[in-house]
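3.2 Worked example (two chains)
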Amino acid sequence: FRSLDTTPAGAEYPNGNETVCAFEGRFTEVEQVDDHEYTMKVKGFIITSQPVASPTSPGRRNPRPQITVDTGINTIYCERDNPPSGFVNTKEFRLYLPGKAVADLPADYVGMAFAAGAPAGEMTFYGLYNAGDQAAFRG
């Protein structure tokens, strides 16, 4: 999982923050709603990202490890006690397939998945929506 927020994060990170997270889990209880939508639950969700030692105290965990790279982006690796945004409440997800009518999508999903405003017509990509966290993913 990678998420990029391009809002400047101070002078050191003018290109924003990137959250990186490795995790495991399974979608279960998959139910088809219509030709272009499924609901599912998540089982066994666990963050597998490894803690990174704090650069100032090598023996201690850094709750928000940071690695500076030449792109001006602050990379934050999530940990078990710090899940990424959109994966805090993992009870139910909705999967939208290409062809789903945009008018039939929840307003929260549309507001997040279509940053430039919702187009008329149908989705042209896959979408994942976590209603519990009100988080949208697209790909």
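3.2.1 Second chain
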Amino acid sequence: LKDSSKSSNKLTITITTPPNSDTSTKAATSSSFSLRNENTNQTSSANNSLTKPATGIKLSGATSVEKGDSVQIKATVTPTNASNKDDIKWTISGNNKSGTTISSDGLLTVADNETAKTITVKATIGKVSNTIKITVKTPTVPERTNRELPNEAKDAISGGSRYPNKTVVRAD
């Protein structure tokens, strides 16, 4: 390049990207350039931060959880090389108990005494956000079955003489 005011001056422009940048996808997060006047050896330089903010976020994971349990919610950020992809802020709403929480990596833990039927999990990154609704279930307790005891057990329990030396222990 030539300086238009003086035809003998030359300017050299050097553009540098970080060594680990993927220039094919333009994923560099910073670059620098310098200008050098070859006649005067004067140099001027500048740095430029290139940011590629997230444009979308998708949430996935279980859509129900039992009280007292946890469920992992996964966030997928687009584009995958977004410069702020690790800056996800997690929040929950609809919960009624302080023991129901969400961690900084999206692990929802529901309190044993939670009374809400649905909890909304929200992930925000930059100016984009998304939500997923999680149904809160009461843990199921297995039904106790009343099984009929065999005749010899009935006889032993009732003090019958059929099996006078047997002791019956009920296993349920």
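3.3 Remarks
The longest strand covers residues 128-137.
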